[in-house]
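I am writing to request your help with a piece of structural work I have in hand. I set the record out below, with my sincere thanks for your time.
___
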Amino acid sequence: MDLKRRLAFTTMATLTMALVLPAATVQAQDKSIVMASTTSTDQSGLFGHLLPAFRQASGIDVRVVAVGTGQALDMARRGDADVVFVHDQVAEEKFVADGWGLKRQAVMYNDFVLIGPASDPAKAKGGNIAEALLRVAAAKASFISRGDKSGTHAAELRLWKQAGADLAAAKPSGYKECGCGMGPALNMAASTGAYVLADRGTWLAFKNRADLAVLVEGDKALFNQYGVMVVNPAKHPHVKQAAAQAFADWVVSPVGQGVIASYKIGGEQLFFPNAGR
């Protein structure tokens, strides 16, 4: 091949690559989504188990931003997420009713538990969460609140209200808001011998327990439901609706539900699938 033909061939190849690479980049970008979710799904280790299975089934990568449910919903309202996976049904239904999400689908549940020192100085142990919280308050025992507008924080506030305690008027003397995720809140409780409301999944995955123990469980008021919602592209046209919907459909499918059910720590199941119920 003479020099002129070689130069012409090189130029053509360069132009071809210049045209192909942007298309390949766009295609690669379409194979990834951002999911705003809670610290409990992340810190429990569920996503480390769930998302590789979804990636294998779909070829879609999911980048998780794990924050409190309130912050996750705010992210979606700003258009900073394609899909939301959280656990505050009241807030989720409002999110959809206000037009930010296309549809809310139930995915799975577990429960909240009241954690505290094994010695239980407030005598809170039992099966009634309202009674337990009132005993913690009466004993002026230290209680760590997430204080971060997360799903767990919203549940905690509802439980105090059901117990007849008006936190807006006066918080118990030992009540402390950390403005932090579930893991840090548990760490604070472990280091100070405090009580804390936690989701069971994060508790089972938590390693730094010190002398903390589960003191209250089994009350129906402690039920913890999770839902998934695709962000409405009518609000934010850049939302990757097709890929986000692929995740939402997969996680409520028999295959996705089976992957959730198979996630265990020490032989104990952390989340229980209940899509369509």
About this structure: Confidence is low (pLDDT under 50) at residues 3-29. The chain has two domains: 11-109+226-273, 111-222. The radius of gyration is 23 Å. DSSP finds eleven helices and twelve strands in the chain.
